[in-house]
Design brief:
This protein is an all-alpha fold and about 280 residues long. It contains eleven helices and two strands. β1 and β2 form a beta hairpin.
Length: about 280
């Protein structure tokens, strides 16, 4: 665990573009990377916006009947492509993070504070993405099944929700979980239970997802969110509530780091005054 600041003039001079974008510093204090937050928000809005446009354009023309060749052309190929891409991202990123983990974590309090700023900013951007998923995919899925006939488990709204948005979020949280526990001093020797619950939430709803699809296919046609066959999906929401506990862990560490930085700054000021007096 780092206890001193090692930010020298040479280190500042050698600051890279990645440092300036992800770990900006102003007046000697780390700042939130708002530029990257805006870029990330714009990127997420572009991806989900294009996906929603695709659904709006092709759902009612070639997405009503799974058994039509056009459905496989426009929807099943999309499903295969996005699942392959998301699986590839997770299969490459998680082992890479684990195999390249440092034996000893040497990080200054200033940089560690910058990392926490980056994490909190990323979570803020992610909160907007969650709202977008709820509005553009979850509500659309319920509306779709209320006005069309469910012929199979693969529908345009399911392909966007259960096979794109939720798996993408799950893989992202798992990657963040591994990165945090292999790169950050406060989490390196322990497991963050709140973050573990968050990462597990999308996985824990999978049994209910299977039950839901099987039930809707054979014996339960009602698609209201309050239907008993949907009750298991609240596991996802309950898991995300664990974010509060994770934030408390982050804030506790930020408090220690700010006190450490303030003490180091005070010592440097005293040393400068003594040098001037001498």
């Amino acid at each position: 665990m780092a206890t001193t600041l090692n930010e020298t003039n040479s280190e500042v001079a050698e600051e890279t573009l990645i440092d300036r974008l992800f770990f900006p510093v102003k007046n000697g204090a780390p700042q939130a990377p708002w530029l990257m937050a805006c870029v990330g928000s714009a990127g997420g809005a572009l991806v989900f916006g294009v996906y929603r446009w695709y659904q709006q354009t092709y759902s009612f023309t070639v997405g009503l009947d799974y058994f039509e060749p056009e459905f496989h052309t426009y929807w099943m190929n999309l499903l295969y492509a996005q699942l392959a891409l998301i699986t590839l991202i997770g299969a490459v990123a998680v082992p890479w993070l684990w195999l390249t983990r440092p034996k000893e974590i040497n990080i200054t309090p200033m940089r560690e504070l910058g990392v926490y700023n980056l994490m909190l900013t990323f979570m803020a951007v992610g909160s907007f993405m969650v709202v977008a998923v709820l509005g553009l995919f979850v509500e659309a899925d319920a509306a779709w099944h209320q006005v069309t006939i469910r012929d199979t488990d693969f529908t345009p709204t399911h392909i966007g929700l259960f096979y794109f948005a939720i798996p993408l979020g799950a893989v992202g949280i798992i990657i963040g979980f591994v990165w945090l526990h292999t790169r950050m001093p406060d989490f390196n020797k322990r497991v963050s239970l709140p973050l573990c619950l968050m990462a597990s939430a999308p996985i824990l709803i999978m049994p209910n997802l299977g039950l839901n699809e099987w039930g809707h296919t054979f014996f339960y046609a009602e698609e209201l969110f309050a239907a008993p066959i949907h009750w298991g999906f609240v596991t996802l929401g309950w898991g995300l509530f664990a974010m509060g506990g994770f934030l408390l862990q982050c804030f506790a560490r930020i408090r220690v780091l700010t006190l450490t930085a303030a003490e180091a700054s005070a010592r440097e000021q005293v040393q400068d005054e003594l040098s001037e007096a001498a």
